[in-house]
Amino acid sequence: MEENRKVRFxxxxxxxxxxxxxxxxxxxxxxxxxxxxDIKSKNDLGLSDVDVPFxxxxxxxxxxxxxxxVVNVCSPNGLHAEHTLIALENKKHxxxxxxxxxxxxxxxxxxxxxxxxxxxxxCVMQNRYSPPSIWIKEVVDKNLLGNIYMVQLNCYWNRDERxxxxxxxxxxxxxxxxxxFTQFSHFIDIMYWLFGDITDIQGKFNDFTHxxxxxxEDSGFVNFSFVNGGMGSINYxxxxxxKNLESSITIIGEKGSIKIGGQYMNEVEYCHIENYTxxxxxxxxxxxxxxxxxxxxxxxxxxxENVIDTLKGRTIATTNALEGLKVVDxxxxxxxLRKLKKLER
Length: 345
What we know:
Blueprint: E1 7-12, H1 16-27, E2 31-37, H2 42-45, E3 54-55, H3 58-63, E4 70-73, H4 80-89, E5 93-96, H5 104-117, E6 121-123, H6 131-141, E7 148-156, H7 161-164, H8 179-182, H9 185-195, E8 198-206, E9 219-226, E10 231-237, E11 246-253, E12 256-261, E13 267-273, H10 300-311, H11 321-340
């Protein structure tokens, strides 16, 4: 792509996340938003003053004749694969919100099609851009902790009727997919990014407070071994009362220990490593605010920058399609245990 040309984006799915993408595209001087798409009307979405063409179906968008380079897929989880494949068929690069898809099989279809048409697929895992994530990646890559013994991922959030009531897809098995896909895939991505694949998975699941709100569990204990050595666990729940408690990762290694916490794994709470002084990290971005239940880490501007830089040949994708597939693969293997168990009530 020519260095002096703006990258043209179209957004499929114009809810909270789609609007966030639109704002980040507008703010970047090297990008321009040329179209938006959603099955809901502009008025229903609060986009009555939107200043770009708006369409109510993906088919309308692609038959409009509007020229664009990248499609940002921000539709419900269960539609990510379908909308991405349509975009690739039309030879567009794609930015896919998490998760990449709800099955490994669909992720494989996306990767195959992207290779066929020579287009880039970027997976949105914006927590990789937070200062603590960048720092801990360097610590692990430099082997400052030595052999990794234990990793504990704790994700305790609130997602109650304020989040689910009135939604037309969140909480459903086919479009949402489950708590690990919608709420906590970012943190599973960080764990995989740092320590690699897992095996010997065991799990226990429960639905404490979401019986009338969702089609799946709200809580789980999962333990496993890392292929590269050491053992780990994921403990999660969306049954926390009133507001989010934490998303944290605790790492016990041969030469030191670290805990990164905060609501969105955005604060280094403990660092004690042999012959190491922790540097002063830059402040993390404030969280997106999507209402009383809050939202997620606000690093989407880095995603748009990475897309532009990659398409202009300056860098590579921060989270590529194979990494997106691996996150789905890990969740799918965890959830295969869930399907074998009757949820305890």
